[in-house]
Structures are given as structure tokens and as C-alpha cells.
Amino acid sequence: MKSTEFLSLAWFGIKEILLKSEKPILGTIILTDYCNLSCKHCSVNNINKRMYPYRDIREEMEKLYKLGIRILFFCGGETFLWKDKGKDVRDLVREAKHMGFYLVNVVTNGTEGIGIPEADVIFLSIDGTRNTHNLIRGDTYDRIMENLDRAVGCNVCLYMAVNNLNYREVEEVGALAKDHPNIRSISFNFHTPYQGTRHMALTLEQKKETVARIKGMIKAGFPVFNLYSALDVYLRNTWKRPCHQCMVSEDGIRYICGRCVDIPGLCSECGYLFAAEFSLLFRGNIRIIYEMLKTYLRYI
Q1: What is the Cα Rg of the chain in Å?
Q2: The predicted structure's pLDDT at residue 281
Q3: CB 35 within 8 A of CB 66
Q4: Is 100 exposed, middle or buried (0-12, 13-18, 19+ CB in 10 A)?
Q5: What is the predicted pLDDT for the residue at 46?
Q6: Which residue segments constitute the domains of the chain, with CATH numbers given?
Q7: Which range is least confidently modeled, 14-23, 140-149, 163-172?
Q8: Cys bridge to 35: 39, 77, 97, 289, which one at CB 3.0-4.6 A?
Q9: Cα separation, 101 vs 94, whole angstroms
Q10: Beta strands 156-162 and 246-250: pairing type?
Q11: Of 180, 280, 181, 168, whose CA–CA distance to 214 is shortest?
Q12: Which residues contact 66 (CB under 8 A, 6 or more apart)?
């Protein structure tokens, strides 16, 4: 990130804290709901099996930029499956950077490839050690590792959705992030119990155990992208939501914070740690501000 971009984001944060204007800075565009996997914890894949048109995505990128969003994510379904008018997700990343977005990130399951060196961060889903990951996501672990070995020059962050099948393996996945030469960091989220997936939700005691493990990893120097001080606040479940600084767009429909915001009761069970972190950040939590600056400057 350029120093001018960093200063611009810092100034945005200062204004949000002082003025409490709740303007968005982070946007996610869903490129498709089509996915080549049927993960046990997912309830948003292959509903319509649509590849959203390039023209619509390009227009939405321009609109989000005009709204003031400067951190952009591309998600699916599976993002690497998206193609339209001779364009693929790598083309979108290049265009977004040219448009002026400061950070452009891609979320992927890694089965169709990982290598987009133009992306600021590639969030790669790994949900446990080999056997557990394959139990959750199908027989994909070895293929992902092969693609990961080829992802030289990319900023890869492992992205683990912690549920009651894999919560005891956060340290093992953290060790993979620490030891693999093509992985720079790891980010954890807790399972959000969308319809049909409540059986995978963690109990409060399991969450406490997992938070203790993650905090121990941070203290031990593992490259954890999450913020230490936000973890206990997340457990207390007292952070303000929805986070108005975040926005998700799919097929012309925009959601404040995330797609779960309109599902009655689900917001209170949110597992997205970044939402808690951003909520605390823009309420002026000094410790969170310090940790976010330290973490983002290290891993982006």
C-alpha cells in the first residue's frame, strides 16, 4: 500500500470516529454463487448457479468507488470460476487497482488456482488438517496444496472457518501458515449458523477454548491476522452491529455489513471476527487502533 493511501485510510478512520458518520470503506462484490464444492458449513452456494455479468460487476465497482469504498473484496461461490466476456477474476483485480481501490483482495477455495500476484491479499480457505478439511470440503486438500506450492509471489492468507468439527485444529492450521513459504498469514472466523448449518456451531465453551488457543498463537509469534484485543470482546458479544463501514453487494442488492443482516436473530450469532474488529475500530478503541495498524502494516 502506498503511503498516501495509508494516510487516506487513517484520515477516514479519524473522521468516522469523530463524526460518527458510518460511511462504508470496505466493500465485497459477489461474482457468482456457483461453486465446484458443497462444503458442510455453506448455505449460499449454487442457489441460482449464476455468473453475474461483467458489465454489472464493473458498474458496481464504479459505484462503490464513488461511495468512498477503498478496500474491495471479490468473493463467490468460487471466484476463480467466474468468467464473462473474456474476463476472469484476475482481470477484475487489475481493473479495480487501476480504478483506484487501495486494497483489492480475493477469497477462494484454492481448487481452481491461487496465483493472482496483483491482488493485495488472497484469502485461501483451509478448514483443518487434511482429513478434517476433506470431511468438510470434499477431497480437495492435496489439490489446494499443489496450487499453493505454485503461488509464488502472492500474498496468501489462510482463511479458516472454525466450527465444532475443526476447532481443536487451529494450531495445526496456524503451523501451516507459519511454515509454508507461500503463506504470509492466517485469519480465523467462527461459524455463523446459517439455515441448515446450526449443528456445526460452537458452544460458548468451545469458543472460549478456541479463543484461548488463538491468543496463545499470537503470543507465540504465529502470523495471525486477527486482533488480540478483539477476541475477548467477541466472546462477550457486546460489540455494536451491524458494521456500517462494511458492505456486501450481490446481483445489484447491497447489504450493510454482510448478507446475514436481514436474517432475524442471526446477526447476534455472527462469527465474522473482522466485523467485531471494525466495529471496535470505528468506535475509537485505542488498543484496537494500535493492533490494527501493527497487523495490517505487517501482513499487507
Answers
A1: 18
A2: 93
A3: no
A4: exposed
A5: 66
A6: 3-15+24-299 (3.20.20.70)
A7: 14-23
A8: 77
A9: 10
A10: unpaired
A11: 168
A12: none
Position 228 confidence tier, pLDDT thresholds 50, 70, 90: very high
Residues across the chain: 300
Cα 247 from Cα 261, distance rounded (Å): 11
Q: Is 109 exposed, middle or buried (0-12, 13-18, 19+ CB in 10 A)?
A: buried
Output the pTM of the full model.
0.96
* Element housing 95 (H / E): helix 89-99
Written as nine digits, the cell of 221 is 509469534
CA dihedral (282, 288, 290, 296) in degrees, to 10, reads: -80
Decide if 156 contacts 122 (C-beta within 8 A): yes
Q: b/e for 26-50, b at 16 or more Cβ within 10 A?
A: bbbbbbbbbbbbebbbbebbeeeee
Which residues are CB-neighbours of 136 under 8 A, at least 6 positions away?
A: 39, 40, 41, 127, 128, 163, 165, 166
- Strand segments, DSSP code E, in the chain are 26-30, 71-75, 83-84, 87-88, 103-108, 121-125, 156-162, 183-190, 246-250, 253-256
**What is the three-class DSSP state of 261?**
helix
